[in-house]
Amino acid sequence: MAWILLFLMTLPAAAEPRFLLNRADVARIKAQASAQPVVQRLIQRAENWPAAHVENYGLKEWALPAEGAGWSHAYVCPVHGARLKQTRGQNLCPVDGKDYHGWPVDNVVYMQRNGDNAAAVRDLGLAYVLTGRAEFAAKARRIVNAYTVLYPTLPIHDNNNKLNTQSGARVMSQTLSEASWLVPLVFGYDLVRDTMTAEERIGFERSVLKNAAVILTGNNRGKSNWQSWHNCALLAIGLTVGDQDLVRAALDGPGGFKFQMRESITPDGPWFEGSWGYHFFSVEPLMLSIEMAKRAGLALPEAAAFRKMLDAPLRAVFPDGTLPNFNDSGLVKLAAYAKHYSIGYRMFGDSRYVPLARQASSDLETVLWGADALPEVAPVAAVSDLMPDAGLATLRVRENDHVIAVKFGPHGGGHGHFDKLTINSYWNGAQQAADPGTQAYAAPTHATWDKMTIAHNTVSVDEKPQAAATGKLLEWIALPSAAAIRVSAGDAYPGVELERTLVHTPWYTLDLFDVKAADGKQHHFDWMYHNYGQIFGDLRWDQAIGLSRLNGYQHLSHPAANRGDADWSEIIRQQQLGTVVHMIGSPESIVIAGTGLGPDLQVPVPFLMARRQAVSTRFSALYEPMTQGGYVLQFSSPAPNEFLVNGAGMNDRIHVEPGRFSVLHQVFGKPVQLFLSGIAETELLKRSQTTPIQVDWSADGATVDLFMEGTLEGAVRITAPAAKLIRLNGKKIECRANGPYRWASLPNLGNLEPCQ
User: Is the bond leading into 480 cis (omega within 30 degrees of zero)?
Assistant: First the structure.
């Protein structure tokens, strides 16, 4: 670690800004300041401090909170479970407007005030170095010096207000929050410390920074978002005070930056906790650590893994720019993190980041560390995508915006939900199949609903939640207009096998959910589907039904039942669009409808449940995206693994079994599209390969398009009597005619007539 020592030996006692900005950065930002509204807003915030802070929190005058802060997740209405809203000293429930005070509510406001104070030091410091106005530095010094006095007097306390616990902190109630408070505070201090006296600098560094470092290093959280923030704060402190041990711990220590790059980022790129919210929560400290190391001249080749963290959300995003709210996550909008893609473009030059980076012009971080200029790039169409290590699949088709997101991977640690094989979906500009995501962790429904199996679009066994488990990918097929996946739930229910197969097309998605008990005994199997909107179907929900009052079932409201022995369909509509759910009946089945909870506790989300008591069963469902009315008139299974989908001139045949699948889409008896995998020959296509292939016939039959990965081997015979042109992946290939057939890719076609 001689390189760290050499760097620290060159650090003067009162250095110019250097650890997140250096002289060149300041010059660059100054040169662009007149064209950057965000800089003008920054200066305005500096001018308005502390008056704006005092007004926002309903204070008589500015002062630090005299007590340690509380846990952000405790800021909820105890009656409705909704997050409170702080308005000029009032903590209002958004449901009934009641104002709450006392512990822990007021202490959460202390957390907010401390966070705003740290951000103010950063903003004031930036305003000072950009304008040279001494009053901004004086304001920053006022906050810094106040914490110098207060910090060592605060007891170490945790989220439950217990003293001297390992996770506890002083200003905040947990080391995670202490670290995220420290980073902007140290950033701002670095910008103004040359205006402070030696006594002030020594006092702040000793009372706050070194004291805080002891607390953070005493709670190494290993593989976690917590430790990523700890590392970021420790690196900032180490570089600021010249402590090589802290720098080494932050980068190379157990749980350090390099460890997080290796262990916490899955090989596919998503953060290991399986939550897009925590993914971006972890992006922030990792990105700041990279920026600090760069300015300190510290080589971090491990930082290359950071690029995968930026790539992964682009692979899983819905068409409206949101990400599935799996595990402990809300509906994350990628645009909210556009700043990271501006910074990412500067780091890696990846043109895929440009569309998002263009949305980041109003973000302060973009001005500080983002790209100076962005090129013009053509949009890239999203395709079906699989991240097998993270256990995420996104099924897309080129014809429309119908998307299915599938979750089957690792549980996700403490932020995981018991929902293996669940799905979310999107259609016609709106979320369809719903996931509750997460409420504040102190809200009662977080543990009793958000995490429960029945709250998700999967199967619950015997009204109990799944165990924490890792699923397994069994098959994956991706073509331009179809995708298929087969996955198992692993040990989600010991002794019960859960396996799900999804076949996604432009017109519908086939869902086959197989459940089998190894003990040979009958079990309750509850197939669950939640969808935003309202139920508008033809079934009569006139049978009362009693459900468990445990494991999330207690949150299912107004349950009513109908027989499920016959095939059934039901519409869940959002205004003029929605989803039609078709299911093939079973003698041992009943169908239950009602409402459950959604991401907004005040907006119920309807559900459909198919309940069966059996040793083994297959739930065969079809999800049909709908605009004005249903398109599918009949969904049936004439034989095992065979399915028919008929309606409005459409006559489709589907065959699905392990290792083999085919979908033939016909309109008025004419083939339009064929998808094959594991099958070499049908009445319409004969070949020597069994790799996945898509065949498209044009409306007039004159053109046939083939799509596949790899090369076309040997002879391919297509039933296409009018075809004059055959293309493979968009490129024309040799075509010869032989009665109703067209032959392609034969080296010895001389005895056949050309297609033209």
Answer: no
194: its two tokens: 């040359």
- Locus of tokens 């995420």: 392
Burial, 54: exposed, middle or buried (Cβ in 10 Å; 0-12, 13-18, 19+)? middle
| CATH 1.50.10.100 in the chain, residue ranges | 36-65+109-219
Phi, psi torsion values for 688, nearest 5 degrees: -95, -15
What confidence tens digit (pLDDT) does each residue in 308-332 have? Answer: 999 999 999 999 999 999 999 999 9
For the record, the structure tokens of 238 come out as 């180490």
DSSP annotation string for 624-643:
EEESSS----EEEEEETTEE
The third-level CATH classification (topology) of the domain covering 385-629 is: Beta-galactosidase; Chain A, domain 5 (2.70.98)
Q: Which contiguous run of DSSP H or E holds residue 596?
A: strand 589-596
Considering the domain delimited by 36-65+109-219, tell me its CATH architecture. Alpha/alpha barrel (1.50)
State how beta strands 634-639 and 543-544 pair: unpaired
Tokens representing 179 are 């670290």
C-alpha 600/C-alpha 434 separation (Å) is 11
Beta bridge partners of 651: 646
Lowest mean pLDDT among 11-15, 691-695, 703-707, 726-730: 11-15
CA angle 460/509/394 to nearest 5° reads 80
How much is the average pLDDT of 350-360? 95
> Is omega for the bond preceding 37 within 30 degrees of 0, making it cis?
no
Between vectors from CA 215 to CA 209 and to CA 220, what angle results, nearest 5°?
120
Mean pLDDT of the chain: 93
Which residues does 33 contact at the CB level (< 8 Å), separation at least 6? 39, 40, 130
CATH 2.70.98.70 residue ranges for the chain: 385-629
Provide CB contacts within 8 A for 738, sequence distance 6+.
717, 752, 753
What is the per-residue DSSP string for 64-121?
--SS----GGG-B-TTT-PBPEEETTEEE-TTT--B--STTHHHHHHHHHHHHHHHHH
- pLDDT at residue number 540: 78
Of 425, 436, 421, 433, the closest CA to residue 391 belongs to 421
How many other C-beta atoms can be found within 10 angstroms of the C-beta atom of residue 254? 9
Query: DSSP states of 482-529 as a string?
Result: EEEEEEE-TTSBTTEEEEEEEEE-SS-EEEEEEEEETTS--EEEEEEE
CATH architecture of 680-754: Sandwich (2.60)
Q: CA 267 from chain center: how many Å?
A: 16
pTM for this prediction = 0.94
- Tell me the CA distances in angstroms from 514 to 51, 398, 508, 511, 580, one per residue in order: 62, 29, 19, 10, 21
- Decide: 420 and 499 in contact? Cβ < 8 Å: no
Helix (H, G, I), strand (E, B) or coil at 25: helix
CATH 2.60.390 in the chain, residue ranges = 680-754
